[in-house]
Amino acid sequence: MVNGGGAAEPGGVRNGTLGETAARPRAGGDGSRPWASTGTGPAAPRSAQPEAGASGPSSGAGAIEIRDACKSFPHPDGTLVPALAQVDLSVGAGEYVALIGPSGCGKSTLLRLVAGLERATSGRISLDGRPIEGPGAERGLVFQNPYLFPWLDIRGNVAFGLRARGRYAEGKDLVDRYLELVGLGRFGKVYPHHLSGGMAQRAALARALINRPLVLLLDEPLGALDAFTRMNMQDEILRIREEERITMVMVTHDVDEAIYLSDRIVVMTAGPGRVETVIPVPFPRPRARNTPDFLGLRGRILEILNFAGRLEEPAYQI
Ligand SMILES: Nc1ncnc2c1ncn2[C@@H]1O[C@H](COP(=O)(O)OP(=O)(O)O)[C@@H](O)[C@H]1O
Ligand SMILES: [Mg+2]
After folding, report:
1. 3-class secondary structure, 129
2. How many other CB atoms sit within 10 Å of the CB of residue 75?
């Protein structure tokens, strides 16, 4: 069992990054959050003081605590198959954490637990000290496939969450702001089938961001993009993060992407899925992908994944 949120972990890096951006205007303007929380009770504003009982680097709005979380799924033969075992991880407010590991090690399951789409078999998962009991608009989710609604134009797609919650009238200015933020300001009237993969993924980001989430959960969001679009989108995500000051947890298979983007990298292994180790990335941004530090860390992570020796034996059955 690994504690992924030790007090010595990269608060300095994170605080340094955020310190530079704290004064920037947010795309959402006044900081109000036009959503009603469902899963974790009333949400605190981002500037809120830590909850009573919350402490350490993960205090504040958008801090995730995962304590001893286990998740098993029923197998057709009647047994329970463990997908995640005793995961401990703290993600600080505004922190960028990457989850990396072989297929089947439970990365998506962990993200779905935080999203409230699955319940942990045992253990505790909370946001800002409140247990996560279901989905909530304060936790946005973006998948590898952007899943845009083909019958709606991009504006309609981005506005969907506002309309669904009856908030469109008060929040429709946000649609333009978020379209601008993701670089789609001129494409609001375009339909999804006319967009490139990168543009569609930008629209999916805007659709998630318009709910003003405290936490953005990204499940291999760039996995379907070509290498150049992918690198451009990595910069877009960093830019959006600076503007939104949002907690981000991203699943990726790409070690370079994890190092380029994150404050910490959680290396997971399968059999059952668990946290192998948590690696701080102390390099200042913007990061160059070819420095000795970058390449050294890359080698170390690849070594950990191979040394773990579980790659040949996936925990899942097809
Ligand atoms: N709904 C489900 N029912 C049964 N087994 C599942 C379900 N979701 C995930 N699993 C199993 O849990 C394990 C982890 O899956 P997943 O979280 O998707 O892994 P990853 O995202 O790391 O590839 C796998 O063995 C997978 O087969
Ligand atoms: Mg997955």
Report:
1. coil
2. 10
The CATH architecture assigned to 11-22+59-307 reads 3-Layer(aba) Sandwich (3.40)
In the reported structure, the alpha carbon of residue 173 is separated from the centroid of ligand 2 by a whole-number distance in angstroms of 34
Q: Give residue-wise pLDDT tens across range 74-126.
A: 999 999 999 999 999 999 999 999 999 999 999 999 999 999 999 999 999 99
- Domain range list for the chain: 11-22+59-307
Q: Read off the pTM.
A: 0.81
Pocket test for ligand 1, best of 87, 99, 100, 108 (most atoms within 8 A of CB): 108
Supply the residue whose CA is at minimum distance from atom 20 of ligand 1: 104
Pinpoint the alpha helices (H) of the chain: 11-21, 107-115, 154-164, 168-181, 197-209, 227-244, 255-261, 292-307
Q: How many angstroms is it from 108 CA to the middle of ligand 2?
A: 4
Ligand nearest to the CA of 81: 1
> Rounded mean pLDDT of 168-191?
93
Q: Which ligand is nearest to the CA of 145?
A: 2
Contacts of residue 229, Cβ cutoff 8 Å, sequence gap at least 6: 196, 197, 198
Q: How far is the CA of 220 from the centre of ligand 2 (A)?
A: 7
The structure tokens listed for 268 are 């997971």
- pLDDT (0 to 100) of residue 10: 35
